[in-house]
Amino acid sequence: MSTLAGSRGSGPEARAAAIALAGGLEAALASGELGREQDLEAAEALVLGLLRQGVRKYLGVFGHGSTALGEALRAYEAAGLVRVFNLRSEIEASHAATALAWQYGETAAVFASIGPGALQALAASLAPASNGLGLYYLLGDETSQDEGYNMQQVPLAEQASFLKMASAMGAAYSLLDPWALPAALKRGAQAVFAPGFPAPFYLFLPMNAQAARLEGFNLEELPRRPEYPRLAPADAEAFREAARMIAGAERVTLKAGRGARGIGAAALDELLRRADAAYVHGPSAVGILPGSHPRNMGVGGSKGSISGNAAMAGADLAIAVGARAVCQWDCSGTAWKSARSLIAINARHGDASHYNRCLPLLGDAAAVVERLLEALREAGIDKGSSPSPWMGECRARRAEWEALLASRIAQESLPDPKYGRPLLTQPAAIATVAAFAREKGAVAYFDAGDVQANGFQLLEDEVPGRVFTETGASYMGFASSAILASALADAPAYPIALSGDGSFMMGNQILVDAAAQSLRGMIVLLDNRRMGAISSLQLAQYGADFRTDDAVAVDYAAMARSVEGVLGLAGGGSAAELRAALESAYAHPGLALVHVPVYWGPDERGGLGAYGDWNVGAWCERVQREKHRLGL
């Protein structure tokens, strides 16, 4: 046994070295290389507690509210146990950590100082909270002894102001007593690693608590990462009832959200065949069923598609899998126009019972589908073994949608009224980038706005995990920040962020951090000098756009080149020129930005249109009236 490491009097460097030598915290404790009881600061105990849960990467911005945490991390990074990435924005750090969880399955911690930094991290946490992704937020906070206002705290004579705000977002805890750290980390693990729909956890660290000395702290009290079994309803009658509902329906549509991502393609194929169901997916569920599958009708929702929305509107039985019924997902509750009943498969009881006339099947989506298939087999239900009028109708609408997509992609450019010359349309530009990404095995991230909407209408992948569309919060600037994760991941894939000019300007610190963190990747910046999605919405609702235009010309390629190691390229005015720019960008050893001016104007060929309702603005009264009529 190492005398220093086993001793309560050893310091963080000795403890970190003992853990590294033993091959991990568990091994060090089991061998006695590290004694169970240690005298250490609370900040170091926190690092050890997160290490026990598998958290080894920290992203953020240090400040006066996190110096003790920084010192603890310094010792553990020197021993090779953690990696710390100091970035230029807490928002960027949150987005990159979200992508680490989403794309790579790595749980990270975002750190920030007190005040503005904590608020920025809290705002950006809306993205993982909305998309069911778990990560830790370690936020500096005012001292617990209340000696007077701490700089950057909320200037009120009240306790725990930041904690109150975070608690409205999700699970939060203030470490007012550093000895409560094990309890805090247990609650954190229950949120971050929750089955079905993980969530962020906000841990507030008063500055004096971080540096508090814990004498004889028992490291075994630090909770491990929980492992949850896959669960499905025990009541077999629920599955028999679901089978009877499927057998009695004439037009079945299954719509998948992100919660369906654990279902194997073979099981999903069998369920669709036995139910004779059309398949529709939400924007963030691309690739769960191959895009070429004959029952795949594409995306459905407020933007949606001809075929996806028709399959939803015509279904007399809807099967919703792993979805929260977000307003754009089901047209603010008006998409299921013919549904007499629904089956909802979801890990969260609130989402499973969202609709009226609904049979909720609560549990892990893959486990529930397995049980449902057993019930269908036992009942001898195999409705799709021969052609049906329902699938014939759905496939006709799918052919109509595919023809529209082909015609819009073929219309490469249109005369742009602002630029005064022909520019690529967004469908043509996105199709070019998507084909390039598939060829190179790259992963595509779509930012909010027109780029996102045209992207999820256009893309149908054969496998999941190649396209990421943050439609939970639609956080502008997410994509360009998220691709930083590929510089931090253990086994990175080449990333391409597709971003509009407005979104990019909300996350352009990536240019510097990409160089600092040696990111190899690409940003394709589609520039229409406006908030095109909102301009289009204003025109559709009120006949005029207002304050969503932007007359300022920006040379984004020159902006990119101003950062050492970053390549800036012009994307050209044709698909061939864009393809050539993409090849040059891909060959670059660092980050490359391809600037592509794109068309915006009254010609409908410049986009892919909208096929569903949405409860916003001038449409609210009509959409709400329809929802009440449907009674869902």
Short synopsis of the structure:
The protein contains 27 helices and 22 strands.
Helix percent reads 40-55%
Q: Hey, roughly how much beta strand do the residues contain?
A: 15-25%
Strand order of the largest sheet: 3-2-4-5-7-6
Gyration radius, to the nearest Å? Answer: 26 Å
Output the CATH homologous superfamily of the largest domain: Thiamin diphosphate (ThDP)-binding fold, Pyr/PP domains
How do the strands and helices of this protein lay out in sequence?
Elements: H1 3-6, H2 12-22, H3 25-31, E1 37-41, H4 42-52, E2 57-60, H5 67-78, E3 83-86, H6 90-104, E4 109-112, H7 116-124, H8 126-131, E5 136-141, H9 161-169, E6 171-174, H10 181-192, E7 201-206, H11 207-210, E8 213-218, H12 236-248, E9 252-256, H13 265-275, E10 277-281, E11 296-299, H14 306-314, E12 317-321, E13 341-346, H15 349-352, E14 358-362, H16 365-378, H17 389-410, E15 413-416, E16 421-424, H18 426-440, E17 443-446, H19 450-458, E18 467-469, H20 478-482, H21 485-488, E19 495-500, H22 501-505, H23 510-516, E20 521-527, H24 532-542, H25 556-561, E21 567-570, H26 575-587, E22 591-597, H27 620-630
